[in-house]
Amino acid sequence: MKNNLIRFDWAMKRLLRDKSNYVVLEGFLSTLLGEDLHIVRFLESEANQTEVNDKFNRADMLVEDEQGRLLIIEVQNNHELDYFHRMLYGVSKTISEYINLGDDYDKVKKIYSINIVYFELGQGKDYVYHGKTIFRGLHDPNDVLQLSIRQRERFIGKDAGDIFPEYYVLRVNDFDKIAKTPLDEWIEFFKTGNIDSSATAKGLPEARERLRVDSLSDQDRRAYIHDMEALRYQRSVIKTGWYEGRAEGLKEGRAEGRAEGLAEGEAKGRAEAKAESEKEMALRMREMAKKMKEAGMPVETIAHFTQLALEEIEEL
Fold it and tell me: Residue 275's beta-bridge partner residues?
């Protein structure tokens, strides 16, 4: 039975910053990192927008825990080829912003970049990945560089790499299993928007109660429905425009190729039909790009799906 729960990315923008709802996000973070985490405060996040024309942007949060560590949580729905680079940029920017000019380097905070993505990011068989810096011996790969005794007394961690940022990538759409672990229960929620009645992972029972659509105010409920319709329209524009345009272009190309082949020769007909098909496809991509731009989608996302140049999209 469906719980009729609010999407997690929308809840991040509107609800989870409320101190009364900290328990939900604390539950997820504790489950992922394998320790009992408590949020001290939420810090500013440039992408955590609520305006209508930002509805397609990623949702993210910057959290500080009781140990002073910073946790960047990002949810991204749109496909981005350079997403790994943005993960790196986000961490680097956070490090530079949260150390005061003149402070010693040991004031750099430990950062976790947690990425919940709804598109194919890289290649792999798993649906959860963890990355961290490890210094291995060039001549002996089993030799991992560790902190000195004095450094261990001053810094937390036994390896030099423990000081550096760590990354988590949750490829939600690749989860196709029965939830057997607490983390699986969370990922199932991210993917389906549903929390099974038997789910007991930390934070999920509270999410089941506090993230109900029917618990929203009238204003928030209208905003939520509007944003979900906008996302549905976005997906429809992308899928319909891409698949129909491609299918129609191929169909016309084959038909024109056969007709021209009968009249002027098969080789010449195929070449001209291909050129015409490509021209038709280009026109269709421009039409789709124009609709996507009018819908408020980012230029980079439009370029990815239409293969048009950024300058060409700007001129539409």
Answer: none
